[in-house]
Write a structure and sequence with these properties.
By secondary structure, the chain is mainly alpha-helical. The protein is 51% helix and 9% strand. The radius of gyration is 39 Å and the shape is rod-shaped.
Length: 198
């Protein structure tokens, strides 16, 4: 992590974006995302940039007393060791690993590349699904608001209908209606023409 380094040695990095095995760019989704455990350099490659470069610089600075064995799987595993400090059992183990890498390294690297491509594709689908779910949730919330407004409007209309019915039953309405002979419409927008009773 960058926090393990001196401030002057830290290159620009991101802890919110990710990378893909087929690109040198950074991505906001559908990638191997940075986490609290590790970060990605904002620029690909270059001198003193990245973990592998740091290991190679370390080995070069120590007159190659250390060696590096890379296993091209599990995001890339690197074994750094000092040959002179190994016991016989450790030498045999490293020799077996090195032989395995020499024989199967190309296949393992291809399988790892394919695995990372599938992983990134899965993450992209998951991110798209999450985005669609958020859009659906927002739409459901808007629909709920519209439905609440509709119910409130129906309630107000119900109150208005009740008030209008009470007005029509009132004495004032009945008396006023008797004196609207010949008008095309009764008071308050009624739809029937009132006539004199014989």
């Amino acid at each position: 992590m960058p926090s393990f380094l001196e401030e002057a040695e830290v290159r620009p990095y991101t802890s919110t974006q990710g990378v893909r095995p087929d690109s040198e760019k950074l991505f906001d989704r559908g990638a191997i995302m940075a986490t609290e455990g590790y970060c990605w350099a904002t620029e690909y490659g270059g001198e003193s940039n990245g973990v592998l470069s740091a290991v190679e610089d370390f080995i070069a600075a120590h007159d190659k007393k250390w060696e590096l064995l890379i296993v091209p799987g599990c995001f890339g595993v690197g074994l750094v060791y000092a040959p002179e400090s190994l016991n016989e059992r450790q030498r045999r183990c490293l020799h077996a690993i090195r032989e395995g890498v020499e024989i199967l390294g190309g296949l393992v690297e291809t399988l790892e590349y394919n695995r990372l491509q599938l992983y990134c594709a899965l993450r992209e689908r998951e991110d798209e699904l999450q985005a669609r779910q958020q859009e659906l949730k927002a739409a459901q919330e808007r629909l709920a608001d519209v439905d609440a407004e509709r119910k409130a409007a129906q309630q107000r209309l119900g109150h208005a209908d009740a008030w209008f019915e009470s007005v029509q039953r009132s004495l004032t309405w009945r008396l006023l209606a008797r004196f609207t002979i010949g008008r095309s419409q009764p008071p308050l927008g009624g739809s029937r023409q009132l006539r004199n009773k014989p």
